[in-house]
């Protein structure tokens, strides 16, 4: 990837993280490896169980979805809009309200559908707190109107 591609990539991903959905979750781009690594802090409004305390399961699922969609947006040319078809989440450990990292990798991609594996971790990447299998429909027309999906 050349310097211009890197700048274009960074601008696209920066724009996405400034959307209200990402801001509510507190998602930031932490680093780049094969795909963006995202991070989010465990803010009070994201806690589901105040007795433990633990992050809400919906927040964990949302972070997994964010990582999967960001990876697809990073890997595919502009004009491809990933539309969520299904997400299957396995909650492995309690997600404490601390900095949480998310990454995703492509399992398989065809012309119309992509399958992605995503994971969340806190202390160590080899000890995920949740993993997901995510399927997307790849809309190559760029249309987002109500009549198209």
Q: Which percent range fits the helix content?
A: 25-40%
The CATH topology assignment is: Thiol Ester Dehydrase, Chain A
Reading off the top of the CATH hierarchy, the class is best stated as Alpha Beta
**CATH H-tier superfamily:** Hotdog Thioesterase
List the total number of helices: 3
CATH architecture: Roll
SSE order in H/E notation? HHEEEEHEEEE
- The structural domain count equals 1
Major beta sheet, strand line-up: 1-2-6-7-8-5
- What is the straight-line distance between the termini? 33 Å
Strand content: 35-45%
> Which residues sit in consecutive blocks of at least 5 with pLDDT less than 50?
143-149
Overall average residue pLDDT = 87
| Class of secondary structure makeup | alpha+beta
Strand count: 8
What report would you give on this structure?
The chain is an alpha+beta fold and 149 residues long. It has a single domain (3-139), classed as Hotdog Thioesterase (Thiol Ester Dehydrase, Chain A), CATH 3.10.129.10. 27% of the residues lie in helices and 38% in strands. It has helices at 3-17, 20-25, 57-75, and strands at 28-32, 36-40, 47-49, 54-55, 81-91, 100-109, 113-121, 128-139. The strands form 2 sheets. Strands 1-2-6-7-8-5 form a 6-stranded antiparallel beta sheet, with helices on one face. The chain has a two-stranded antiparallel sheet with strand order 3-4. β6 (100-109) and β7 form a beta hairpin. It starts with a helix and ends in a 10-residue tail after the last strand.
């Amino acid at each position: 990837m050349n310097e211009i591609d890197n700048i274009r990539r960074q601008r696209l991903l920066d724009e996405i993280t400034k959307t209200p959905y990402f801001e509510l979750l507190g998602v930031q781009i932490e680093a780049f490896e094969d795909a963006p690594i995202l991070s989010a802090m465990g803010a009070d409004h994201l806690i589901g169980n105040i007795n433990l305390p633990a992050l809400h399961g919906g927040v964990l699922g949302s972070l997994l979805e964010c990582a999967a969609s960001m990876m697809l947006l990073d890997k595919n040319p502009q004009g491809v809009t990933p539309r969520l078809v299904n997400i299957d989440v396995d909650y492995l450990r309690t997600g404490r309200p601390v900095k949480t990292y998310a990454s995703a990798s492509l399992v398989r991609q065809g012309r119309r559908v992509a399958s992605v594996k995503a994971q969340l971790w806190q202390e160590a990447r080899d000890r995920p707190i949740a993993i997901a299998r995510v399927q997307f429909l790849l809309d190559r027309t760029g249309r987002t109107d109500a009549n198209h999906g």
